[in-house]
Structure formats: C-alpha cells, structure tokens
Amino acid sequence: MASDINGPQSVSAIPPHPGDAPVARPVDLELLRTPPPVERADAARNRAAVLQAAARLFAEHGAEAVSMDQVAAAAGVGKGTLFRRFGDRSGLAAALLDARERDLQEAILRGPAPLGPGPGDGPDPDPADRLTAFTDAYLDHLLAHLDLVRMSETAARGARYRIGAYRFWHRHAAILLAGRSEDPDHDAHALLAPLAAEHVAALLPELGEQRIRAGARRLAARLATPRRA
Q1: CA dihedral 46, 48, 53, 58 (to 10 degrees)
Q2: How far apart are CA 71 and CA 135, in angstroms?
Q3: DSSP type of residue 116
Q4: What is the pTM of this model?
Q5: pLDDT of 165-200, one tens digit each?
Q6: What's the pLDDT band for 159 if we cut at 50, 70, 90?
Q7: Cα 225 → chain centroid
Q8: How many Cα neighbours within 13 Å face the side chain of 141?
Q9: H-type helices in 63-196, by residue range?
C-alpha cells in the first residue's frame, strides 16, 4: 500500500468532490491508541487499588452484579474519586481491558503476518488475510473477556462508539478495505457490528462459538473481496 507516511497507518474515506467515490487519506493508526496514564504517585496507587478491587469483585460476582459503590468500598477510596477517575462502569471496564487491548493493537501494528504487517523486507500480506486474522484475534479477545467488554460497551448509551479501542479497530479495518470497498468506513462498521459484546453474548447460547466465528470470517471475506471495475 503506497503512502508518503512511514509506519502503521489507516485511512479516512473523504470524497474530494460531491458525488465522487471516497478516497483513502492516511491517518497514523498509532495516534488512535490511548496512551498510558501519567499520574502522581498517590493517584497511581489509587488507580491500582481500584483496578485490583474491581477485577477481584468482577471475578467473584460477575461484572454486571458489582456496583461502583462496592468497588469504591473495596478499594478504600471515595465514590467521588472513583467517578472522577473512571466516569462510570463502562470507563472502569475499559480501564481493566486496557492492557489486553494494547497487546492486540501491538500485534496488529508490528506483529507477524497475517494479523500484523510482518517483516518490512518481505511482501505485504494480503489485506483479506489480515482482515480475517483480525476478526479471529478480536473474537479471541472478546470471548476471553466477554463480561468486561459488554460492560464497557453498554454501561452508558453509545459507550461502544466513544471508546478509543473501537476507533482503532474501525480504522484498522477501514484501511484493509480501502480499494476493495466502495465505502471502507461504512463496511468497517458493518464488520464490527456483529462483533459487539451484547450481540455475541445473546447469540452464543443459541449458535455456539464455532458458528459465530465462521459467520464472522465469512463476512470479513465478503467485505474484502475486491470490487469489480
């Protein structure tokens, strides 16, 4: 994929003139990653205590059954401190998922093919293969942390689309679809829609993991099929 910007990239599909087809404009994918928090020592200790308490309570009782009041009490911090630091339960869940999401993002940015770009001196992996690999890897992440991802996406209205990780996943999919789709931005959302935690949690008892995975892979393959001239 030709570009005048070095490093991992994604695209934003913006029509240059009304009525024209969208064109890919590079955006550094690295910029969509949320940097680790920079905090005073006391704030860092409070954050660690909160995340440790939340992880323990969620493991013992399930994420949906634990309140912010319970987390604050277990961590030994005030409820106001907890809300100022994390906002709501979706923010708390997102913070717990942060390290796991960073691992997946790093693999996408710099890991071996087909999930990552592979070595810079070799041929570029096929975008369709990368999109399928991303779909598989994201489902691995989602199914391993389904309750937490579900909380991060649903604790507040529209939370899923405000989370920085969602913007990263979307932009990565959009760049892989550039040149293969009439509207990469739309189709990237279409790929991610059935991977929403609420959707997967609802279908899992009925369809099972293997059918969900197979369906997601089929969708990725169809979206990545080059359009006819």
Answers
A1: 130
A2: 33
A3: S
A4: 0.74
A5: 899 999 999 999 998 999 999 999 999 999 999 999
A6: confident
A7: 23
A8: 21
A9: 68-75, 79-86, 89-110, 127-144, 146-154, 159-162, 164-177, 184-192
